[in-house]
Automatic annotation (TrEMBL):
SUPFAM superfamilies: PLC-like phosphodiesterases. Its EC number is 3.1.4.46. Residues 1-26 form the signal peptide. Residues 145-156 have a biased composition (Basic and acidic residues). GO terms for molecular function: glycerophosphodiester phosphodiesterase activity. Residues 27-156 are annotated as: Disordered. Residues 45-96, 125-138 have a biased composition (Low complexity). It comes from Staphylococcus gallinarum. This is Glycerophosphoryl diester phosphodiesterase. The keyword rRNA processing does not apply. Residues 33-44, 97-124 have a biased composition (Polar residues). Residues 163-417 form the GP-PDE domain. Keywords: Hydrolase, Signal. The keyword Signal applies.
Length: 421
């Protein structure tokens, strides 16, 4: 009996010791996990360790739940600890891989230019500060002026040619500028799309073809055009100086060439030719715009058919003159000429203002780049640069997307256009 009691006491003691050992092992695991978690939180790699913390907390919770429910033996606790360590290692590897992918994605975003970066790097936006300040203008919906310009461009489609050849002062590379000889050659021989005519006004109110305000450079006379009556102006020799300056193209018949009037030019070519007319110095000649429109109307150049076929284009450096012309007859297609260096300083707001009256711009050709030509085209402008006499420049400008050029050598430009077909 006493032996039986001893055996029972011994068994109970052993069981108690076993339970105590299991409890101690469980607490040791808990303390170890707690220490690992604390160390993980203090790690500098927040992205990686946050993922590891979540995994450890989930594993610890599952382990504690199992321990509390089943009270495993020390051998089972060792097995669970090994399983937990393997799970932690796998979770850490996944977290590190995810963090590496995120870092690579950040690098790609830094190296890939945003749409704004592309705009800022655009040469278009390196022209002036004002351009950058007004860059939002081009992103706005089409204004009423823009829609009107687009409509005018559709109506006044010029000659339908992809590239328009504008004979600058006639065939002025081969004959005396702004004489009937020069106009004849450009229209009859060189195949120019347009005859360009610069207008001045005589003392008695006649519109005549001459570039300068004075007669000194191209004739044997001196003084201002508006100091001469038409009869006096007709006595001047507008051809001999060309022969002296260009002996390779000199012609005896050029001697004594007269300064022609606009009426004489329109009488000579009628609607068989197209005319690109510039109002020169309109501030010097009050009423020039009205007189020009009256003359064109007299020669049937303002009919709907003539305007649709692009028989007449009117150009000026003067915005005030173009606005006056537009107010007098809004159906006449107008082109705003731009001095050298002017285009790079124009903001989109400036261009929108020009577009209120003009369907095209005529910049000095050296101001043009591929980017600003495309920008002008996107805004709805025709682009006709002046004065382009070099074949390489013609080819380059055509590649930019201009709609034509002013040139002293219409035949050379026609050749460039033909070779590009």
């Amino acid at each position: 009996m006493k032996n039986a009691k001893r055996i029972m006491v011994t068994s109970m003691t052993a069981l108690s010791l076993s339970l105590l050992a299991s409890t101690a092992m469980a607490k040791a695991d808990e303390n170890t996990d707690s220490t690992q978690k604390q160390n993980t939180i203090q790690s500098p790699n927040d992205s990686t360790q946050q993922t590891q913390d979540n995994t450890q907390e989930q594993t610890q919770s599952a382990t504690n739940s199992t321990t509390e429910t089943t009270n495993p033996s020390p051998e089972q606790s060792d097995t669970n600890a090994n399983t937990k360590q393997q799970t932690d290692n796998q979770s850490q590897q996944k977290s590190q891989h995810a963090n590496q992918n995120h870092s690579e994605s950040d690098n790609q975003e830094q190296n890939t230019p945003t749409p704004q970066d592309k705009v800022n790097k655009s040469p278009q936006n390196n022209t002036t500060t004002n351009k950058n300040e007004n860059s939002s203008t081009s992103a706005r919906p089409l204004s009423e002026a823009t829609e009107k310009s687009a409509k005018n461009k559709e109506i006044h489609n010029l000659t339908g040619e992809k590239f328009t050849t504008i004979a600058h002062r006639g065939a002025s590379g081969y004959a005396p500028e702004h004489t009937l000889y020069s106009y004849d050659k450009s229209h009859n021989e060189l195949g120019a799309s347009y005859i360009e005519i610069d207008l001045q006004m005589t003392k008695d109110g006649h519109l005549v073809a001459m570039h300068d305000e004075t007669v000194d450079r191209t004739t044997n006379g001196t003084g201002r055009v508006d100091s001469y009556t038409l009869e006096e102006l007709k006595k001047l020799d507008a051809g001999s100086k060309f022969n002296e300056q260009h002996p390779e193209y000199a012609d005896e018949q050029y001697k004594g060439a007269e300064v022609p009037t606009l009426d004489e030019i329109l009488d000579r070519y009628g609607t068989d030719a197209n005319y690109y007319i510039e109002t020169k110095s309109p501030d010097v000649y009050p009423g020039m715009e009205e007189k020009l429109l009256d003359t064109l109307d007299k020669h049937h150049m303002l009919t709907n058919q003539s305007l649709k076929n692009g028989h007449v284009m009117i150009q000026s450096f003067s915005q005030a003159s173009l606005e006056k012309m537009h107010n007098l007859n809004s159906d006449v297609p107008l082109v705003r000429l731009l001095d050298k260096g002017e285009l790079p300083n124009l903001t989109d707001q400036d261009l929108e203002s020009i577009k209120n009256t003009a369907i095209g711009v005529g910049p000095e050709y050296s101001d043009l780049t591929k980017d600003n030509v495309q920008h002008l085209k996107e805004m709805g402008f025709l682009v006709h640069p002046f004065t382009v006499n070099n074949k390489a420049d013609m080819e380059r400008l055509n590649s930019y997307g201009v709609d034509g050029v002013f040139t002293n050598y219409a035949d050379v430009y026609k050749q460039v256009v033909d070779e590009s077909k």
